[in-house]
Design brief:
The protein has 5 helices and 5 strands; from the N terminus they run αααβββαβαβ. The chain is of the alpha/beta class. A 5-stranded mixed β-sheet has the order 3-2-1-4-5, covered by helices on one side. Helix 4 packs across helix 5. The chain is elongated, with a radius of gyration of 18 Å.
Length: about 150
């Protein structure tokens, strides 16, 4: 499980790695292990994470989870350490605020100096409301990065 959680590998790759070590498992077995134990591992390991830096990069993507399309909000700090993530049915200011509150509530996070976001209109509204409610540091800067065009 540690390999799957640490590195971007597939369950079939994990099956082959275990076979190289003489352990015969089907690729669905690690999948079931991850489903059963990942939440508990995350809960136990989160207090030991290194403190994050004050520069956050926030993004969201649209993923299918258990047959339903959801938005995956995620934040990483400048070295690339994951700060937090949130699955949400909506992509609006309320979901962005819920995500920021969840991320700020973690023991390894600090109030960010800068938050780099994409051009989602929900982020400026959420950041402004949280600054007004003293949930975010008033000097926090929000930087919008341009979307890359492929062409």
């Amino acid at each position: 499980m540690r390999w799957y959680l640490m590195f971007p590998i597939s369950y079939r790759d994990l099956e082959l790695m275990l076979a190289d070590r003489g352990v015969e498992v089907d690729h669905t077995t690690p999948f079931r292990w991850i489903q059963a134990y990942a939440a508990d591992l995350e809960k136990r390991l989160r207090p030991y994470l290194r403190p994050c830096t004050g520069s956050w990069r926030v993004d969201e993507t649209y993923n299918k989870v258990k047959g339903r399309w959801t938005y995956l909000y995620r934040a990483v700090d400048s070295p690339g350490q994951t700060i937090d993530f949130l699955l949400s049915a909506r992509r609006d200011a309320a979901a962005a605020k819920r995500f920021f509150r969840k991320a700020l509530g973690q023991p390894h996070t600090v109030n960010p100096r800068t938050i780099t976001v994409d051009k989602n209109a929900a982020y400026p509204k959420a950041v402004a409301e949280m600054k007004g409610g003293d949930e975010l540091w008033r000097r926090t800067k929000e930087l919008a990065r341009a979307m890359l065009e492929i062409g």
